[in-house]
Amino acid sequence: MTKIAIPLLAVLALTACETVKGAGRDMQAAGHAVTSEAAETQAEM
């Protein structure tokens, strides 16, 4: 049972890391978009 559980947990952990990494990229892209829009609005004022 242990021989199956440990690799399974490792795969799940790696998948979770990739998910968090992807979410981080999405939030970073959203932050860049907000910053860009704020700079454009400020330049128009």
UniProtKB/TrEMBL annotation:
<comment type="similarity">
    <text>Belongs to the EcnA/EcnB lipoprotein family.</text>
</comment>
<keyword id="KW-0449">Lipoprotein</keyword>
<dbReference type="InterPro" id="IPR012556">
    <property type="entry name" value="Entericidin"/>
</dbReference>
<keyword id="KW-0732">Signal</keyword>
<keyword id="KW-0564">Palmitate</keyword>
<protein>
    <submittedName>
        <fullName>Entericidin A/B family lipoprotein</fullName>
    </submittedName>
</protein>
<dbReference type="Pfam" id="PF08085">
    <property type="entry name" value="Entericidin"/>
</dbReference>
<keyword id="KW-1003">Cell membrane</keyword>
<keyword id="KW-0472">Membrane</keyword>
